[in-house]
Amino acid sequence: REVNTGRPILGEVPGVEVGDEFQYRVELAIVGIHRLYQTGIDSMKHNGISVANSIVDAGVYSGDKHNAEVMIYSGHGGNIVGKNKQPEDQKLERGNLALKNSISTMNPVRVIRGWKETNRSGKLVTMYVYDGLYTVNRYWQETGPHGKLVFMFELRRIPGQPKLRQKSKI
Amino acid sequence: REVNTGRPILGEVPGVEVGDEFQYRVELAIVGIHRLYQTGIDSMKHNGISVANSIVDAGVYSGDKHNAEVMIYSGHGGNIVGKNKQPEDQKLERGNLALKNSISTMNPVRVIRGWKETNRSGKLVTMYVYDGLYTVNRYWQETGPHGKLVFMFELRRIPGQPKLRQKSKI
DNA sequence: TAGACGTAGA
DNA sequence: TCTACGTCTA
Predict the structure, then answer these.
(1) What CA–CA distance (Å, rounded) separates B96 from B46?
(2) What pLDDT, on a 0 to 100 scale, did the predictor assign at position A165?
(3) Which of A141, A151, B15, B22 is most deeply packed, by most CB within 10 A?
């Protein structure tokens, strides 16, 4: 089967339900809930402007927080993670701009959460779970640990969706 | 299905035949003919020394040549491809050392060849084909276009294998 | 911890 | 052309 069948989707993706788990980013791309292999913020043109349609929160940025209703998500860029790169202020472009635009358009954003766990082979694997639809409430800038500006986005889970309950481990 | 079931294999991999085609590097890892996602040279310990068990020739290095019987393959390291990196002399380590060791052990090395083609959707995709088993005959150093030393390996296809004939396009 | 002939989308 | 919360082995 080909990766990325069809156009990017805003909102619910047919056949994918809250709580569905995946092991690889490529699976997210195949089922269509997040097309990008590495990038955390996926975006698309909607009525002429770029809006976010999905994000992956792999829990790698210290500023990120997640509870049942509200999550705080860091923008990308500025090489926060990168090794031998100089950190820079994040810019309001690409995914960051898309997330900002989604505040006014109030479009649903799919949220996928990732975490690490040890499978029965004793191997550390990354797991991803589809958390459901969120809207973006607001954004601001913070100074990161490296002294450079980082965008922060607050998202709120759209009410009425099934509660997220992790399936049995492996 | 998990990536990398079992231990690395030297020589033929059950279920994989000359001419079998793949679209993604991850598929090579899954079937077990080349475990590494990006690295061109896969190696393993055999009788205590590191030998090469498979290589992927994606045709990206100008020094590489391939005909029906003999192929010339560049070593890795030195950031030949990298963008904003300074090129360096390649070192006789990792995959380069493994390929050199395979000269004296005369162990079979699986060769996978890659190329780019346009599918019917008009999208440029990379394809890989399993070419069969080779032995490493000799190696030497050359000065690359960037003025740094590059290892070159000459491999010869083991006789008696089916001829490689590409399957029909898509 | 770092390296590697990856991938797709902007 | 370049970015990106990848993913593996050593």
Answers:
(1) 16
(2) 77
(3) A151
Write out the two tokens for B87: 């090129």
Residue B3 has pLDDT above 90, yes or no: no
Residue B51 identity (one-letter amino acid): V
Q: Which position has the higher pLDDT, B139 or B124?
A: B139
Under 8 Å between Cβ of B158 and B136: no
Cα-only R_g, chain B: 16
User: Integer distance in angstroms from CA A44 to C1' C10?
Assistant: 10
Task: Please give the Cα distance from A22 to A131 (Å, whole number).
Answer: 12
Taking CA atoms, A12 is separated from A9, A130, B62, B72, B96, in Å, by 8, 11, 47, 50, 49
Nucleotides of D under 7 A from a protein CB: 2-10
Residue type (1 letter), B91: K
pLDDT (average), residues A36-54: 96
Q: Which of A81-85, A156-160, B6-10 has the lowest mean pLDDT?
A: A81-85
Asked if B110 and B133 count as a contact pair (C-beta separation under 8 A), the reply is yes
pLDDT tier for residue B68 given thresholds of 50, 70 and 90: confident
Phi and psi of A47, rounded to 5°?
50, 40
What is the full DSSP assignment across A28-60? HHHHTS---SS-SEEEEEETTEEEEEEEEE-S-
For range B110-129, the mean pLDDT = 89
CA–C1' nearest nucleotide, residue B55: C5
Nearest to A112 by CA among A126, A130, A99, A134: A130
- A162/A19 Cα distance (integer angstroms): 9
| Residue at minimum CA to C1' distance from nucleotide D2 | B83
Q: Is the pTM of this model over 0.90?
A: no
Is the pLDDT at B85 greater than 70? The verdict is no
Using a 7 Å cut-off to protein CB atoms, list the covered nucleotides of chain C: 2-10
Which residue matches tokens 């083609």? B117
Vertex B75: Cα angle to B53 and B146 (nearest 5): 170
